[in-house]
Design a protein that fits this description.
Elements (H helix, E strand, L loop, with lengths): L1 H16 L1 E9 L5 E4 L5 E2 L5 H13 L8 E4 L18 E4 H10 L3 H11 L1 H10 L11 H12 L10 H4 L12 E2 L1 H12 L6 H11 L18 E9 L2 E9 L5 E10 L7 H19 L2
Antiparallel strand pairs: 1-2, 1-9, 3-6, 4-5, 7-8, 8-9
Helix pairs in contact: 1-10, 2-4, 2-5, 2-9, 3-4
Length: 292
């Protein structure tokens, strides 16, 4: 009954926030789950950086690369973005692991593409296939993804993305033509990381640490405003798309992987209710899984 009631409340919360939502929540230890469109294909946006992070650590564990390896980060031809190296003006030199930190903590597109230059899209797809994520595929680098948006938007540029008709033609928002997954695949990936099945325990701990350093509190974490509850996650955003996947850990040892993917009809960049409903839906799902 708790799950049935939670599903009804989750769907109502999505409707009230003006979003179409897909969600999967999983008790990492018991396997109990809650499914609200968990097998629907979704555009991952920057959530796909989690797949890249796992690949990076998988290769480090195999001795293919050294996470302390230094990478030159020239300002020319950096992938654009509002954070991290993508927003900086001068050259820098960083280790692979520090690039990974920027990629995950502030969703730095430039850092992500520098890492993709090192490991390759094919390696990312091999990693997700190895973990049984049959609906997860990286099609583009993040620079390529942004380039499709620019091309599809046409001569009006970023301002034209306020037009719903323009947004409907964006390839980046079509799971068949963009980086994609399902909510269930993402909780499966998170569970593998938390169980040390994705990488060795040393590298699993490093992945969990980085996920815990994300700076954005306005989506998943907003549903768990407690000092003794830890939320580690990764957001993803595109026009009309707001996503987050992560793990919620309670002081009694409960661990819950949650993936929430949403789309809005409105094209506004700032929609606080659409951000907040990710936390609301996640909290409803986790509360249902924790119910006696």
């Amino acid at each position: 009954m708790a799950v049935t009631d939670a599903l009804a409340r989750i769907h109502a919360a999505f409707a009230d926030a003006g979003v179409t939502g897909r969600l999967h929540a999983l008790d990492i230890d018991s396997g109990a789950q809650l499914d609200a469109g968990a097998d629907q294909p979704v555009c991952t946006a920057s959530v796909h950086k989690l797949c890249l992070l796992v690949t990076l650590h998988e290769q480090a564990a195999a001795g293919i690369l050294d996470l302390t390896e230094q990478v030159e980060c020239p300002p020319q031809s950096r992938t654009t973005g509002p954070t991290g190296l993508a927003a900086m003006l001068d050259g820098a030199r960083l280790s692979l692991r520090d690039l990974a930190y920027l990629m995950m903590s502030v969703s730095d597109n430039a850092a992500a593409d520098l890492l993709l230059e090192r490991v390759g899209l094919d390696a990312v797809n091999r990693s997700t296939a190895r973990l049984g994520l049959g609906h997860t595929l990286a099609v583009h680098t993040f620079g390529e993804l942004l380039a499709t948006i620019k091309e599809d938007a046409g001569p009006g540029g970023a301002r034209s993305l306020a037009d719903p008709l323009v947004v409907t033609r964006l390839r980046a928002l079509d799971p068949a033509r963009s980086n994609r997954s399902t909510p269930r695949d993402m909780t499966r990936l998170l569970a593998a990381v938390w169980r040390d099945e994705a990488c060795t325990p040393e590298h699993g701990a490093a992945i969990r640490r980085i996920l815990g350093l994300q700076v954005w509190p306005h989506r998943l974490a907003s549903g768990f405003p407690f000092d003794d509850v830890h939320v580690a996650g990764k957001t993803g955003s595109l026009p009309t798309v707001r996503n987050e996947v992560g793990v919620v850990e309670y002081p009694d040892g409960g661990r819950y992987a949650v993936a929430v993917f949403t789309r809005t009809a409105r094209t506004s960049a700032l929609l606080p209710a659409a951000d907040a409903v990710i936390g609301t839906a996640a909290r409803l799902a986790v509360d249902a899984l924790r119910a006696p």
